[in-house]
Amino acid sequence: MKRLLLSFILSFGLISIAFSQGKVISGKVTSGISGPIPGVSVFVKGSPSTGTQTDATGIYKLSVPDDAKTIVFSFIGYKTKEVSITGSTINANLEEENTTLSDVVVVGYGTQIKKDITGSVASVKSKDLENLPVTSFEQALQGKAAGVSISSQNGKLGQGITVRVRGASSVTAGSEPLYIVDGIPITSADLSSTSSPTSALADINTNDIESIEVLKDAAASAIYGARASNGVVLITTKQGKVGKTLIQFNALGGVSTPSNHRDFLNAEQYVQILRRAGDGAANQDFLNGDYPTLAAAKADYAASVEARLTRYSAGNTDYQTYKVNTNWEKAAFQNDPITQQYDLSLNGGNEKTKFYIGGQALDQQGIIVGNSYKRYSGRLNLTNKVTDFLEVGVNLNFSNSINNRLSNDNAFSSPLQAVALSPITPFIDPRSGLVSGTLPGAASNYPVYYNPFIGIENAFYKATVYRTLGKAFANVNIAKGFKFSSDFSIDNLNQNEESYYGSLTFKNTGTANGDGQNISTFVINTNTNNFFSYNKTIGKSAFDVILGTSYQKSTTKYSTIEGQDFPSDAYVKLGSAATKVTASSNESAFSFLSYFFRANYKYNDRYLASFSVRADGSSRFGANHKYGYFPAGSLGWIVSEEDFLKTNETISLLKFRVSYGLTGNAEIGNFSARGLFSGTGAYGGSAGQIPIRIANPDLTWEKTKQLDIGLDFGLLKNRITGVFDFYQKNTTELLLDVPVPQTTGFSTKTQNLGALKNTGFELGINSENLVGAFKWSTAITAAINNNKITNLGGQILNGNEINAAISNQPIGVFYLPEYAGVNPANGDAIYYLNTTDASGNIDRSTTNDINKAQRIFAGNPNPKYTFGLNNSFSYKNFDLTIFLQGVQGNKIFNAGGQYMSASASNGYDNQTVDQMDYWNKPGDVTVTPEPRLFYANGVGNSTRYLSDGSYIRLKTLTLGYNFPTSILTKIKLSKLRLFATAQNLATITGYKGWDPEVNADYQSTNINQGVDFYSAPQPRVISFGINVGL
Amino acid sequence: MKKTYIYNLIFASMLLASASSCKKALDINPVDTIEQSKALQTSKDVEVALVGSYSALGSRNFYGGRPFLMADFLANTDAIEWYGTYEELTQTINKSLLKTNSFVDNVWADGYTAINDANNVIASISKVDAAKKNKVEGEAKFIRGSAYFDLVRLFGKAYNDGSPTTNLGVPIILTPTTAVTDASYVSRANIAAVYTQAIADLTDAEAKLPATNGFFATKYSAAGMLARLYLQMGNYSAAANAASRVIASGNYTLTPAFIDAFPVMGSSPGSNTTEDVFSIQVRTLTGFNGYNEFYGSSTYGGRGDAVIAQDWIDNTYSTTDDRINAFYDDGDMFTSKFANPYGNVSIIRLAEMYLIRAECNARLAPAAPIGGQTPLQDLAVVRSRAGLTTTTATLANILNERKLELAFEGFALHDAKRTQTNIGSLPWNSNALVFPIPQREMDANKALVQNPGYN
Question: Which NCBIfam families match (chain A) (predicted)?
Fold first, then answer.
C-alpha cells in the first residue's frame, strides 16, 4: 500500500516543468538562535515557482535569470526576508516571527487572519498536541482551550470523553460539539453496543493534527447552523509544505500505573465489622419483637455470620486467624502495562504538488487487567495545481483499531468490582486450585459476588473498527479573488464487537455452556460542500464573502446476534452455538441540506464587521419544521490601529469584539418527531407489534441565542498576548424528553420545552516571560461557566435519583436528602427533615426515615471553574514543559458508597477503611452508622456519599533534549530529540475515591454527571520518546 | 478567460442540481418501525398488536413475575432470606419501600404499557374480521382487566381496608394514547371503581373468549382471574362460581406430581402444563422469567439472591408432603418452582381454583356446595397430589393449604390482607404494605395523590 502511494506521489511530482536559467547563487540560511535552517524556500521575487529549498545544513543553490533583482527567503515561523542580488553568495539570517497574532486561523469554510476575527475561536496547534501517550485527541486538548471542558468518564482505554463548549446547552438532546475534520462533519456518535460509550474520535491519530480550532460564539459557529449550539471543533490535518521532503520518525514508550489507589478493609477489620453488623441486626430484630431475648437474636445472627465467613474463607476457618488477606483492589490493576507509539511521517512537495504522509502504530495496555487498545492508522494529504486556476487534492485517512474492552462499571464482571470481594477470600481457591469462584468446584455462592478475574481468563470483548475517511476536493480560481471550492467525502466506519463468555463465567452470564455475541455496526456518512468565495480590496475597504451549499447523509446499519450452548470453550464463533438467543438488525439514517452565506468587511485595517446565515434542513424534524435559519452578526474594532495608540510602546494590540447570533441543536433521535410502532412485540413465537413512541409533529430545533463580548490584547511587542471573553448563551425550546404520565403507556415524549442559560468568562494569556538563551513562556487558560436551567415546564428529571434537571438549578444538580450523621443514642443514620412549613420555615430536625427527608440541592456536578497552566522553559538544547490542569466547584457522588461505604449494613461487600469508624455504643459521635447486616442503615442515596470534586493535576511534565546542529550535521539528521514525559503525575484533590475525573460510564447522560461507581482512575503514564528528522 | 466561464457554468449547474433534489434529500423514513397512523389498518394489524399486548403484559416487571415476587417479599417473615444487592428488593423485604424504588416504578409503567397496548386493540376492534372479533376483544379485555386488578391491589389499600369507594386506587384509562394532551393527566380512581372496571373487562372477556385458544387467554383464564379477584373482594359466592366454571370446563387437570406443575429444572424452553389455566410464555428470544432471576440459583440461570430458609421448610412441610421435595440445595436452599430461566411463568394454576372454591364453600357453608363439591373434596384433590390424606377442611386448613401449595407464587401478601393477618409485627393494613405511587410519576402528573405513609 505504502509503495503504491509513493509512486502515486512521484507521478504527481513529474508534472513540474523545467525552466531555462541564467546565473547561480548560493549561500547559507541561519537563524540567530537555532543555527542553520533546513527547508527554507528560496526564490526570485515575483516567481516563486522557480525556487529551491535549503538542505539539512541550511545551504541552498539557486539558478536565477540574469535580470533577477531580489531574492526571497521564506519559512514558516520566521519573518520572510528579501535581499537584493549582489554577487553570487547570499547568506541570510532569518528572524523568528512572533506569530501569535498574525496566525492564520481555520474558520468554517475557510481561513482568516487571527487579527481580523470577530468571533470567539480557541486555537490549539500541533506542538501542544503531539507526542503525548493519549488514545484520543480530546485528552490532549484538555485544559488547553479556555471554555472547553473535557473530562474522561474513567480510565478505560478508548472510552467516552465528555466535551462541553461553554457549558451544557441541552438537557436531553446531545451536548457534544460538532466535529469537522478538514471541512467535513465526521461520524462522532458513540457506537458502543453497551451503555458505556466509546469514542469514535479515537480513530484519528493525534499526531496527524496540525491544529484544532474550537468555534465558541455564534459569530464563529453559526455558519454551521442547526448543529452549532454545542460549539464546533474544527480539526485540520497536516498538509504538505513546499521544500525538501522531511521524514520524521517518532517513538514513544511508557508504563502506566493508576493515578491513585483506594484502601479497603483487611481481613481482621472485615471480620470485625461483619460480626458487629450481625449483632447490630440482631438488636434490631429483637427490638422489632422477632426474638424473645437479645441473646437469642445475637446467637442466631452469629451463627449465620460465621457460616458466611466460613463460606467466603473458602470453606475453612482461616478467617478466624486472618490468615488470608487478599488485596482485591490491587489485583484489579495490571502489572506495568506498556504503552507504545510509533509514528513515521513524510512531508514535502514543490510549487505544484504537496503531500503529507503519516502512519502510526499505537499499542496501549490499560491499567485495569484485560484492557488494551491498538490502533494502526495512515494518512495521505495531497494537493496538486493542475493549472494556474485549478487545484485538486485528496485527504485520505484509514485506521484500524482493536479495543479489548471491559464490562461496564456497574457489572460484576468489571475488574474493579472485585473490591467488593472479601479480603478473607483467597485469590486461588485451595479446594480447586482455580481462581476463586471458578466452576466447577466450590459452590456457586462463593465468593460474595461473581469474581471478575474468572472473566479475564475465560471471556473477551473485543471491538474492532475499520475506518476510512476520504475527501476529494477541487478549488477553481474563477477570477482574481473569486474562487469556487467543491469537495466530496465519505466517512465509512465499520465496527465489529465480538465477545465470548466461557462456561466458567456461568455465575455471571447464567448460561452453562458459553455465551457469544457478534455485533456489527456500519456507518456510511457522505458529505459534499460546494461554495464560492470572493475577496476584494477597494481602497481602505476589504471584503470577503462566501456563499454555498452542503449536503450530508448518514446511514447506520446495525446487526446483532447472540448464541449460547457451545460444544466447548474452544468454540467461540456463533456457528457453534446450539441456541441463538438474539438475532436482530436495524437501520436508521438522517440527512442535512444546508445553504450558507458569510460576509466579512474590514475598513482601514481597524473596523471589522461580519454577518453570516445558514439555512439548515433536516430529515429529523416534522414536515412543517424541516428548515431553520441561523443568522449571526459581529463587529470588531482594532483600537491599536488608531493613531492615538499606534505609536504606544506598551500596547501592541487592543481589539474589541462583540457578536450575537442564533444557533441550533438537532442532536436527537432520527425519528423522534414521529409516533411509531415497532415489530418487536413477539410473544411465545408469534409476531407482534407494539407502540414505542408518541408523536410530536411540532418538534423543531433547539435554539441558542448567544452574545459574546471579547477583548484581544497584546503588550510589549506582543510578548504578552491575551483574550478575554464574556458570553451569555440562552437556549430555548429545549429538545426535551419530557416525562409523561406512564399511565399513557409511554414514559417520555420528545418536545420543545424549557430554557436554560450559560453565562461565563474566559481568559487566555500567553506570555514570553524570558527570551534569549534561557526562555520561559507561560500559557494560561481559565474559564468560569454558570449553568442554570431557567424553565423546564415544571418537570423534574431525576432518572437516577441522584442528579436532577429542575428549574433554577444547574443541569445535573445533586438532588438528595441531607445526611445528618448518626444518632449518638442508638447508631441510627439520620437525615435533616428540611421540610418547609406554611410560613416558610425550614424544619432542621432529624429523622431516621430517609423517606421523610426533603431532598435538597446539594451541589453541582459540573465545575464552575476550569483552568490550565502551561509553563515551558528552554535553555540551550533542553526544554521543559509543566502543564497543570484543574477544575473547581463541582461535587462527586459515590454511587458505590451504598455498597462499599455502608458500614457493612448492606451485605457482605468489603468496605472502605473509613467505615471502621462506625458507631459502636451509645454516646459514640461519628458519621458512620451502626453496622446492621442487611438493615441498610444509612445506605440510601443522600449527601452522605457526596464530596467535593475539585482538583489540580500535574497533567503533563515533559523534559526534552534537542541534539545541536553540530552533531546533527555529522549524523545527517535535521532533528534529533529525546524526551521523557509524564501524564497525570500528581493530583491534588479532596475527593476520597480513586480519581476525581470520573463519571461512571454506563449511566452518563447530560444530567447524570459526577457519579462514581467502581470507575477506573486515570492512568499515570511515564514514558520516554525520541523524534528523529531526516 | 473563456475556460473560466465554462467552469463557472459547470459548477453553477452542479449547484442547481444539488439544490433541486432537496425535497427528496430530506425525505428519510424509518425502516425498523412504522408510523402509528399506518400501524392499525387491517385485521392482521390489530391481531399482531394483540400479540404485542401479551408481550407487554409478560414484561419481567409485570406478569413476567416481579410484582408477585415483590408482594411475597413484603409478606415475608421467615421463609425468604435475601442476599441480593438490588437495593430495591432490600427495601421490599425490609418493608421499607422508598418512593423512588425503581422496581415499583417499573411495575406501574409496564402495567400501564400493557393497558395502553390492549386499549389500542380494543379501539381498533372494528377492523378485525368478524370471525375473530370476539376472541380478539376478549383477549384484550382479559389483559386490561387483569392489569387493573393487579395494579389496584398493589398500589391501593386492601379492598377490605376501610371504604373502597373513598380509598384511592389507580387511574383508569380506557382509550389508547395517540398524543399526550391535558386529558392524559388522569387522577386516581377509587378502589371500588377500579375493581368494577376489572370485573367488567374480565366478565366481558369470559363471555367473548373461546374455550381453547392455544397458550393465549381463554374463557377460563378470564374466569380464573375473576375467581381470584372476587376472592380478594370477599365476594365468596362469585369467586366460588367462577372457580367452579374453570374446574368444570374439564380443560385442565392437575399434573400427577406436584413438581410437574412447574417448568422442568434446567434451561430449555418449557411449555404449559396441564394445570396452567393461564401462563406467560417465555422463549429463548422473547419473554423473561422474573421469578427465576432472583429465586433461581446461579446453576439454574438465576442470581441466587432469594434463598429459602431451611427452618421454614422444615417447619412448614411435613416430611410426607411431596412439596417438601420442591426445593434444591445449591449451597443454599432454593425453590424448584422457578429453576428454569426459559420456563413459562404460571399465572393461574388449576390447584388455586380448587382452593378458592374450597375456601368459599367453607366460608359460606351453603346448603349445597357451589360446584357440587365439598370443601373437603376440593381440598383432598390438592392434598392427595402431594401425597397427603385429608380429614378436615376448616377455613384454617384451607388457608394453610394455600400457603403450602402456592408458596412464592405471589399470594402471601394479598392473602394476608384479605384475611386480615398481621405480617410479623406489622398490621395487615399497614401503609408499608402498599406500594408508593412512584416519585417519578408524582413529578410527571400533578393530578396524583401519594399513598399515606409516603409523604
Answer: OMP_RagA_SusC, SusC_RagA_signa
Mean per-residue pLDDT, B186-198: 97
72-91 in B: which are within 8 Å (CB) of A?
82-83, 85, 87, 90-91
How far CA B273 is from CA of A1005, B213, B244, B345, in Å, comes to 45, 15, 20, 11
pLDDT of amino acid A20: 44
CA distance A502 to A518: 15
CA distance A633 to A732: 19
In angstroms, the CA A269 to CA A918 distance is: 12
Q: Answer whether B30 touches A (CB < 8 Å).
A: yes
Q: Identify the domain containing residue B193 by its residue range.
A: 42-180+187-422
Asked if the Cβ–Cβ distance from B186 to A741 is below 8 Å, we say: yes
pLDDT score at A13: 38
Count of domains for chain B? 1
Please give the model's pTM, rounded to 2 decimal places: 0.84
B433, part of any domain = no
To the nearest whole angstrom, how far is the Cα of B370 from the nearest Cα of chain A?
Answer: 36
**B187: which chain A residues are within 8 Å (Cβ-Cβ)?**
none
By three-state DSSP, how is residue B275 classified?
coil
Q: Does pLDDT of A10 surpass 50?
A: no
pLDDT digits (tens, 9 = 90+) for A699-720: 888 999 999 999 999 998 889 9
Task: Report yes or no on B5 lying in a domain.
Answer: no
| B104 near A CB under 8 A | no
Interface test with B, best of A743, A802, A945 (most B CBs within 10 A): A743
Question: What is the nearest CA distance from A843 to chain B, expressed in angstroms?
Answer: 15
Asked whether residue B440 is domain-assigned, the answer is no
The mean pLDDT value of chain A amounts to 90
pLDDT band, residue A442 (cuts 50/70/90): very low
Q: Is A817 helix (H, G, I), strand (E, B) or coil?
A: strand
Domain ranges for chain A, please list them.
21-94
Residue B162 lies in a domain: yes
pLDDT for A19: 42
Nearest 5°: phi and psi at B323?
-70, -15
Across the range B29-56, mean pLDDT stands at: 93
pLDDT > 90 fraction of chain A, expressed in percent and rounded = 68
Nearest CA distance, B112 vs chain A (angstrom): 5
Report whether pLDDT(A1) > 80.
Answer: no
Strand (E) or helix (H) holding A113? strand A110-113
In angstroms, rounded to a whole number, what is the distance separating the alpha carbons of residues B277 and A1023? Answer: 69
Domain A21-94 carries which CATH code? 2.60.40.1120
Q: Is the dihedral of CA A956, A959, A965, A968 positive or negative?
A: negative
Q: Per-residue pLDDT averaged across A462-480, rounded? A: 94
Interface test with A, best of B55, B294, B297 (most A CBs within 10 A): B55
Residues of B in contact with A698 (CB under 8 A): none
Paired residues of A655 in beta bridges: A638, A712
Q: Which amino acid does the sequence have at A263?
A: D
Residue B86 belongs to a domain with what CATH number?
Answer: 1.25.40.390
Q: How many helices (H) and strands (E) does chain B have?
A: 18, 7
Per-residue pLDDT at A28: 85
Select the more confidently predicted residue: A794 or A828. Answer: A828
What pLDDT score does A8 carry? 40
